[in-house]
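dumping these here so i dont lose them again. two proteins, back to back, each one seq then structure tokens. dont judge the mess
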Amino acid sequence: MLSKIARIQLVSSDPEVYDPCDDSFALVDALLADRANLLAHRPSICMEIGCGSGYVITSLALLLGKEEFSSYYIATDTNPRAVRVTQETLEAHGCHAELVNTDIASGLEERLAGCVDVMVVNPPYVPTPEEEVGRDGIASAWAGGENGRRVIDRILPVADNLLSEKGWLYMVTLTANNPLELCLEMRKKGYASRIILQRSTEEESLHIIKFWRDLNTLMEASEYKTVDKTDGIDPESPSKYASCNIN
């Protein structure tokens, strides 16, 4: 029987690439626990921001398997070595994904706007001095700046733009990141959320949050702001969710 997640012994490595660790395992365990819902969701496009070793995106591809639907996988990383290692990990498991060496989703936002059905993110969440954020190599995988939120706060608006109407976002957070505040911020954008897995290790307390667009939450969110008519949506203009072409 084929494994439903990536096998550690087949995950490639590099001294400057973050190896799978407790946070990676927690995220994959959360996806595995939600597998029945993911299969029923039938995602067309799945994306990982910050793919590192490729353990998570490969696990997601194996977890969804070759069902009656076919998902397209995209993964990005700011570290070029991580892109190479992810390619090796995917190939070792007989999987494929489009890999892009970029910062978060730079260069992909127009093409993928409103098209991503499932997004997974294990961001740099560790509180560090601000000057450590964005460094080259393996430090880019964990350095999160003040409260570990510097990169997370950049990712969330990008996720909001890329997620489809039925889009789901799975994100790893740390207690220090203030997960409740993150949920409240996304609620203002029309997302419901739930912490689907909590795990404590010797060094940290992890929370895997699942965000999804919710009509009731969206209606509630509209009360937070007054939209000027000049900034409104032209009723005759096409929705950003109308058509998704990955080519």
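---- next one ----
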Amino acid sequence: MATDRIAHQPLHPSAIARLDHEYIEFHNTTLQYIVPPHTLAWNPAIRNAPAVPGGAPPLEVAKTRDFELPHTKIRTFTPRGETPEGGWPVFIFFHGGGWTLGDISSETSFSTHLAVGAHCVVISVDYRLAPENPYPAAVEDAIDSLDWVLLHGNTSLNINPSRIAVGGSSRHDIILPQSAILTLKAAERTPPVPLVFQLLVVPVTDNTASIENLWAENQHSPWLSPDRMLWFRDNYLPNAEDRKKWDASPAFAPKELLARVPTAWIAVAELDILKEEGVLYGEKMKELGVEVETVMYEGAPHPIMAMDGKSLIHPACDLELKIRRHILFFCNQGR
């Protein structure tokens, strides 16, 4: 006997006219029936739920290896082909999931596509998750991943330590600020670690934002609702006084430090509550002389960035192509 499915995330009427038509169809047939994790009693098993549907299948790479860090591990993806002169460029990658969801396997598709398309080693960081490991655990693991590349990358993977880029993209909800924070931490060191590029896709940059300010315009957009975002925030940043620290909210980084970060490419979604955070962060860097390109995907809500396997959802496919081109260019610049 057929049963009626329950729409746990129906589209809000005010958002429908602004949304990408292909996304609307996919949301109505698939996404709206997924139970939002923040509505459930907390259980680590929530992490076993599938990521955002619509992603492309992974590609074959030459080698996949795991390495231990002090508190967690990394997974490395090396593409096929000859090692470039000087060693492989490397992209340190942080999966999405609001500090709470996702793991080292949840974005294998993105990692392999980037390794193949940008011809670089991709390092995926299995950072510790909240609420079991709140701030600053994820930041500490990000720093450890950079230290591993600098100390062991060349001998273990033939990595070129002068061609390091960082960033993230998401199959699980929000992109964390770890990549932006890591560029700040690298610039803060004596001597600074010269990263070549940062990729920020639908990022969180201000953990004080709310529907009273930056989220107001898109508070009724699908998938990443204010309640869901606050659930993530409370899991990772239970102490309100930590939310303005720049290694939790890079928007509050000192100007003299922000001025020293590498070239940035930022992708924001027009109907994402995080849109204004990404735009404003890009503007701050530009004002300080950092080379920044910010691209807004019209009609796109937050999760569309993970749907590169849905050929009809054009913003997702365009984003995938642009990411590969930018990483390929910056990681190989100067050869």
